[in-house]
Amino acid sequence: MRRKSGVPMSPLPQRRGVDPVRLKLPVTGDWPTTRAYLLERYAAAIGADRVDAMLAAGEFVAADGPVTAERAYTPGGYLWFHRDLPPETPVPFAVEVLHRDERLVIADKPHFLATTPRGRHVTETALARLRRDLDLPRLSPAHRLDRLTAGVVMFVADPRHRGAYQGLFEQRLVRKEYEAVARHDPELPLPLTARSRIVKERGELASREVPGPPNAESRIELLAHRGAAARYRLLPHTGRTHQLRLHMAAAGLPILGDPLYPEVLAEPAPDDFRHPLQLLARTLEFTDPVTGRPMRFDSRRELAAWSDPRPWL
User: Fold this and answer.
1) pTM of the model
2) With CB atoms 3.0 to 4.6 Å apart as the test, which of 54, 129, 144, 210 could cross-link to 59 if both were Cys?
3) Count of H helices and E strands in the chain?
4) According to the CATH classification, is domain 96-307 in 1.10.10.10?
5) How do residues 163-200 score in pLDDT, each as one tens digit?
6) Residue ranges of the domains in the chain?
């Protein structure tokens, strides 16, 4: 079976909610066997013995079945396999489902849980958990939240409508409202609209503001203050990486628990969940592109620092 794109469907099922790797073999090349190509590509990373062991166990699979060590190289062909996944520290907080229908799953993601598999976080992600728990192997994200940010995130259950829902975010047709807890500055005039040019370079942990035409805009409003702490409503007009965190820090209001802004701090231990970033994606509001109905979803979570900011201040 092939998708509309012409790429064959994976012959391997997901493992723990994670898709197999799909590898397209180069069209040009003079490898005598598929094994020779796999050794050239992966031996430095996982070792030649591991490549051979995977071949012997039938763990590399083509559309017509497992690949043997003697199989001739097929230019432009596809292979699938599951990566060896290192152990991950379990995130001890649940993903709550706010809404589920035949097209959508709206989840309330906890702090410390990545939205989708990336880097060290693969099985301990909201997507992998929901695929397993809801038995929805074709579930996909319509957008993403930072791993350290909690709150409302949208997933698409029916692949036929993935483009329609992802397009809402690409066309800025979703009203997104966030809450944050940061220090209170009575001298700062609020509300304010922050506009700047934000870039994030590959390999760098933090985004940064640079001179040039603005590509990021956020509105910052004061909701309430209590002693040295305050609760803010944040309304992003654009969606640059770490935009709200950077704009709050630039305004002199770094979000409590932020390990990157205004300065990059030492990364806490993987099992240290004591001081979550005090940023919450509170609301998603949009017109459903399939039904035309207005939709609104609100997080049920609260930011711990608003009740007691002392551990963060």
Assistant:
1) 0.90
2) 54
3) 6, 15
4) no
5) 999 999 999 999 999 999 999 999 999 999 999 999 99
6) 21-81, 96-307
